[in-house]
Amino acid sequence: MGVTVGTETRIEAGLDGARARTLALLAPVDDTNLIRQVSPLMSPLVWDLAHVGHYEELWLLRNITGAAPTNELYDDVYDAFKHPRRDRPSLPLLGPVEARVFVADVRARVLDALTTLDLDGDDPLLHDGFVYGMVVQHEHQHDETMLATIQLMNDFAHPDADGWHPTAVLSSETDGPRSVAFRESVHIDGGTFAMGTDERTWVYDNERPRHDVELPAFRIDRTPVTNRQYRAFVEDGGYDEERLWAPDGWAWRQEAAVEAPQFWRREGARDWSRRRYGRREDLPLDEPVQHVSWYEADAFARWRGARLPSEAEWEAAAAHDGEAGGPQQMLGDVWEWTATDFGGYPGFVPFPYREYSEVFFGSEYKVLRGGSWATDPTVRRATFRNWDYPIRRQIFAGVRCAADA
Ligand code: AVJ
Ligand code: FE
């Protein structure tokens, strides 16, 4: 009993926190911007909102209490696998008011049901509140997705956006294309590294099981690559040098006519601005670069005479984050692209559903690590694995380079 009461309190606080964030994020957004599709890559914001409620009803009511669905049609409209994002505006979506009513109604029933469930038993879905933690993290992940959608709106200045950026890296660096002085890298000893975790009450299936990886010694940048450093690559003609790019990356760079990170604009000989939440501002040179694709990160690393870290190297380095002399800002500034394709660890078992991660395993997706400024602390951890296509850059992704020791 004692354990359950504590667990319930923790669950309620987690659910409340996620919902407060979602509603605060959407409150200043007018209905037109809630309904419209800003980019074929993203859903209308009202889809994300109702999808969050649908997922919550599915996992915290239907699957654990046997409750009937509010509306069976939502299983089609709000299942992320039924319709690609670009088709979602043409679906019979709930409007802004209806979506808010739906998520609030689901939440009220979830809180009622919570007191009737046994969270101390053997059911792995319920044990220690696993499925609630999954739903809390899911909502926060969609909040990050919605933040990416809002950033794509070129004419909507969100009033709360002041702090919506990664933390600047402490710098004494000076400019100059070729001569830009990069911060030093950190040596990480080789050896056996225990990657992943066996934790079962909070983390996602793709973070398990913990397994040994043999890693040769390597070096990794102490800090994420800054806008100043990335600008040096741009000014040095990095986007025009085919030899720096992976073949598919060069084809993408040509086809999409990419010349700088997304949202950058040249303002003069060497000056750049960026658009951030509907406002133009000077490019903050000491902030970690974001909105670069894997292909851009990979080309940048090659220009540096370096490479992207493997996923295992990244996680091994993250064990030193916060230590004097260790790598810094690995968690919570920008997602960092790794060299590794998304796959299951040896002995991977999908839980509680294949569509969270297993269906994405393969060579199409690259792993990102670390979490961004938009990633809630409930999702931010050294074992967390994110993934996306190597051409994507609307996510808050940057780069940190590595090299053989
Ligand atoms: C882990 C960010 C790739 O958005 O596709 C949201 C998270 N899974 N709903 C995604 C997710 C189900 C997922 N990523
Ligand atoms: Fe989802």
In words, what does this structure look like?
It is globular, with a radius of gyration of 22 Å. The protein contains ten helices and twelve strands. It has helices spanning 2-26, 31-35, 45-65, 74-77, 96-114, 130-151, 227-235, 247-255, 294-303, 311-318; strands at 185-188, 191-195, 211-215, 218-221, 264-266, 272-276, 279-282, 335-341, 366-369, 386-388, 397-398, 402-404. The strands form four sheets. It has a four-stranded mixed beta sheet. Strands 1-4-12 form a three-stranded antiparallel beta sheet, with helices on one face. A three-stranded antiparallel beta sheet has the order 5-6-7, with no helix packed on it. By secondary structure, the protein is of the alpha+beta class. N,N,N-trimethyl-histidine binds at residues 80, 138, 141-142, 145, 356, 386-387.
Q: Could you tell me the mean pLDDT?
A: 94
Order of helices and strands: HHHHHHEEEEHHEEEHHEEEEE
Sheet with the most strands, sense and barrel status: 4 strands, mixed
Helix content: 25-40%
Q: Order of strands across the biggest sheet?
A: 10-9-8-11
Low-pLDDT runs = 176-181
Strand content: 5-15%
Question: What does the overall shape look like?
Answer: globular
Gap between N and C termini, in Å? 53 Å
Radius of gyration over all CA atoms, rounded = 22 Å
Class computed from helices, strands and strand pairing: alpha+beta
Give me the count of strands.
12
What's the total helix number? 10
